[in-house]
Amino acid sequence: VQGDEFILPKDLKQLVESVVFMAEGQVDLDKRVEIIVEKDKIICKAEKSVGEIKDSVESESEKEFHFFVNPFFMSQVLEKATTMVATENLAYFKSGDFEHIISLPAE
Length: 107
What we know:
Oligomer: single chain
Strand order of the largest sheet: 1-6-7-8
Number of helices: 2
Radius of gyration: 13 Å
Order of helices and strands: EHEEEEHEEE
CATH class: Alpha Beta
Mean pLDDT: 93
Strand content: 35-45%
Distance between the termini: 20 Å
Low-confidence stretches: none
CATH architecture: Roll
Number of strands: 8
Structural class: alpha+beta
């Protein structure tokens, strides 16, 4: 996969886990958070009817994009992945033999 490749911040998994309490959903499988990648940071945002929470961690990316993902699933991906490659339509997570792809929303 060719695209904007960058090292995932070590604190990203902790960041995702820290906002999950504010993610809307009846059960864990229904919950989702928004991951927003900007040139100098990655923002993790969760919201429900009573409000929202967002926090960020420094990062370096040439491409700006966002996607929604289940926070528990994302935490498992970040347990293994150390690098991410972003293209126009996907986020490719990798580390050694581990690979995972998330489809990005069309603009």
